[in-house]
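ENTRY TYPE: paired fold submission
RECORD: A
CONTENT: sequence, then structure tokens
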Amino acid sequence: MIADSVRTIWCRELQRDNISVDDNFFALGGQSLIMAKIQGEFIEVLGVEVPMDQMFLNPTVASISAYIESLGTVHRQ
């Protein structure tokens, strides 16, 4: 499931043990450098490139996962 992969990436990059699917990236301490790292992880783990503007527009695991699913091009590695 994409949301599980996204949540795992966020937990690792934000250095948190437990993130809810509805937690806001910015409220968790997220900032542009971490966002860039997460973009790289999305490419490496899911095989999909997520534009920075979409990451700003979709600041929760649930919303960014829905966006990624809408692309229909996920390639898990």
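RECORD: B
CONTENT: sequence, then structure tokens
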Amino acid sequence: MEGKLKINRIKAVLADKDIKQKDLAEMIGKTPSAVTRMCNNNFQPTLKVLRDIAIALDVSMCDLLIDPRKEKK
């Protein structure tokens, strides 16, 4: 059985920026549990929420979906 497909990189970007999930939740007006579900890929954010996260974390929406380090081959 293969591992769960990772759709977004929100958790990785938070770690890179040393920002806690609860802080992101406050920044985007969502509950901490909603952010946890998104970070664990149990729930995918809408494009609007993904945009809000990108703005809050000062990254592109693409950075939340694609690991730029893996794309540089």
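NOTES ON RECORD B: The CA atoms of residues 38 and 44 lie 6 Å apart. The longest helix spans residues 47-57.
STATUS: closed
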